[in-house]
Amino acid sequence: MNPLNSEVRSQIEQFLRDRQGGDDLTKMCFVFFDADRAKRVHDEAYRRALEFVTIGGIPGAVMEFGVLGGWSARIFCEIMRDIFNLNDIYLFDSFDGLPEYTSAIDRDSYEIGGRNIWSGKMKFPADWLKQFGQPHQWHIRDRLSEVIRPERIIVRQGFYSETLKATPQEKVAVAHIDCDLYQSTIEVLEGLHRGNCLQDGTVLLFDDWNCNKANPNFGERRALRDFLQSQRDFTATPWFTYGWGGAAYILHAT
Ligand SMILES: C[S@@+](CC[C@H](N)C(=O)[O-])C[C@H]1O[C@@H](n2cnc3c(N)ncnc32)[C@H](O)[C@@H]1O
Predict the structure, then answer these.
(1) Protein residues with CB under 6 Å of any ligand 1 atom
(2) Total of domains in the chain
C-alpha cells in the first residue's frame, strides 16, 4: 500500500477497528492533558528527527527508552511508515514501571524527594491490564504491527541495568529517552556508548528535559552532562525544544 494513499488508509483503519473490538493501548495518551495537542507537538518533533536521519543518511534504528502503553511508539511507527524509513524500532521498558531509586540524584530531586509524583511507580494496575487479554507488551507490539511490519518491532522487556548488558547490534539513529529518572537516563547513554550504538549524527530526544524545574543538577539534564564529561568520543549540540518539556540534541563524533 502507498502510505500516502489516504483513502486506502482510512479503509484499513476502519477494517482494523471493526475487527479488533476492545481498546488499543497504543492510542491512549496517559501523560498529557490535551491528547490531540500532545500528538501534534510530538508528531512534529519526532518527524523532524526522523527526516533529519532519513534524508541526512544517518543509518540505524529508532530506540525508545520508556514505552509505557506505546503512545509515543505509535507516533514513531506512523512517521516511519509515512516517510519510508524502513529501519527497526526497539522498545525498551520494564513494562512493570520504574525501578527502585538507587541514585541519590533521583531521591533528592524535586519530583521524587519533593513531590513524589510517581508514588505508583508508573505501573498499570494488573486488573486493568487484563482487558487486553495478553501481556501488554505483546498487545503493544501487535497493535504497532498494524502500522509497520512486526519483524521491525523489537521489544526489550526489563530494567535497563539488565537489558542494556547486551545492546542491539546496530547503530541508533534516533534515541527517544522518556524514562524520567537520572539513573535510567545515564544507564541508557552509557549502555548505548558501551555497545557502540552511538554515531555521528545520532539524535537524542529527551522527553523529560524540563522536569525537576529544568534544574541541570537533576534528571535528564544531569545525565547528559555527566555522560558528556565521562567520555571523549562524543560531544553534543542542542537542536530544538518541543512542548513544555522536550529537547532534541545531536551527537557529534570527535
Ligand atoms: C513516562 S513513561 C513513558 C511514556 C511513553 N513514552 C509515552 O509517551 O506514552 C516512562 C516509562 O519508562 C520506564 N522506565 C523508566 N526507567 C526504566 C528503567 N530503568 N528500565 C526500564 N524501564 C524504565 C517505565 O516503566 C515507564 O513505562
Answers:
(1) 31, 66-69, 71-72, 93-94, 97-99, 122, 159-160, 178-181, 184
(2) 1
> What is the span of the domain harbouring residue 95?
26-253
Q: What is the CA(214)–ligand 1 centre distance, in A?
A: 19
Residue from 34, 62, 64, 94 whose mutation best tests the ligand 1 pocket (most atoms within 8 A of CB): 94
CATH of the domain at 217: 3.40.50.150
For residue 18, pLDDT beyond 70: no
Is 59 part of a structural domain of the chain? yes
Query: Which atom of ligand 1 lies closest to the CA of 65?
Result: 12
- The yes-or-no verdict on residue 21 having pLDDT over 70 is no
Nearby residues of 250 by Cβ (< 8 Å), 6 or more positions away: 52, 201, 202, 203, 204, 236, 237, 239
Helix (H, G, I), strand (E, B), or coil: what is residue 136? helix
Helices (H), 83-125: 104-107
Q: Which residue has the cell 528535559?
A: 209
pTM score above 0.90: yes
194 Cα–ligand 1 center, Å: 21
Any domain includes 15 = no
